[in-house]
Design brief:
By secondary structure, the chain is an alpha/beta fold. The chain has two domains: about 5-100 and about 230-250, Udp-n-acetylmuramoylalanyl-d-glutamate--2,6- Diaminopimelate Ligase, Chain: A, domain 1, CATH 3.40.1390.30; about 105-225, Udp-n-acetylmuramoylalanyl-d-glutamate--2,6- Diaminopimelate Ligase, Chain: A, domain 1. The protein has helices at about 5-15, 50-55, 80-90, 100-105, 110-115, 145-155, 190-195, 210-215, 230-240; strands at about 30, 40-45, 60-65, 95, 120-130, 130-145, 165, 175-180, 200, 220, 245-250. It has a six-stranded mixed beta sheet, sandwiched between helices.
């Protein structure tokens, strides 16, 4: 399949252009020619040297990641940035990135994947970011305790053998769940306003402890990497249907 065709399909599917003015990440094709044939696509959370070299080792023509290389552009291509770009070019490997579009997609996105694990119903977009959303909220069918919710996530997330951290300040029974994956604690206030019993995200900040305790809401910190494997895996499933060979590269950070 032509690279241009794959890029156009992914951009359309993820509404990449709608996030162009909202995201520091240069979403879409970050490294690669305008044209070319693609037979094998690798998927990973991070565009690090380890995943680039692993993708090249599988014989992939294109690497699709959630976290890319360009965040507001390049001032200098030196050091680690040079090493990563050099590895891409030497292996004739393209790089396609989807950051906030892949957080916010209500079917394929990271928050949607966490929602699937928790079997949420009555789902709605959550985590407003300008005119768009980067998360999801919903209702569990049967109320859970915070221990049960944590156990469900731990059984399904690749946490790199690290424990899930929980700020257990909410109600005894959890019904309404808000999700913003990765570094999503800045949306705690929105979760409180929405009447959520718990905010599920990846990593925390110091002030969230007191904010959550005073508001009486649980916060689950399940890992930045662990909560953001869902989107790239969903994209892999979608690209599988296009008749291309695909590989997922597991490189958990435990963070």
């Amino acid at each position: 399949m032509q690279l241009e065709t794959i890029v156009d399909r992914l951009d359309d599917e993820l509404r990449t252009e709608d996030y162009a003015d909202l995201d520091a990440s240069a979403n879409g094709l970050q490294v690669g020619p305008d044209t070319g044939d693609v037979d094998h696509v690798a998927f990973a959370v991070d565009a690090a040297l380890e995943t680039i070299e692993a993708a090249a080792g599988t014989g992939a023509d294109l690497l699709v990641t959630h976290h890319g290389l360009s965040w507001g552009g390049f001032e200098r291509i030196t050091g680690r940035t040079y090493d990563r770009i050099e590895a891409l070019l030497e292996n004739d490997l393209g790089l396609y990135v989807s950051h906030l579009p892949l957080d916010g997609d209500q079917e394929l996105g990271n928050a949607a994947g966490v929602g699937d694990v928790l079997a949420l119903e009555d789902r709605e977009p959550f985590g407003s970011h300008g005119p768009e959303f980067i998360g999801q909220r919903g209702r569990v069918v049967d109320p859970l305790t915070i221990d049960e919710l944590e156990s469900t996530l731990a059984s399904e997330l690749d946490t790199g053998d690290q424990p899930i951290q929980t700020l257990a300040f909410g109600p005894e029974e959890i019904e309404h769940v808000a999700i913003v994956t990765g570094s999503g604690v800045d949306w705690l206030g929105e979760a409180i306003e929405a009447g959520a019993d718990v905010l599920v995200t990846g990593e925390g900040k110091q002030q969230v402890y007191h904010e959550a305790r005073e508001a009486g809401i649980h916060v689950v910190l399940a890992g930045h990497y662990a909560t953001e494997t869902f989107g790239v895996r969903a994209l892999q499933d979608r690209v599988d249907t296009w008749g291309l060979e695909t590989t997922f590269l597991e490189v958990p950070t435990g963070l």
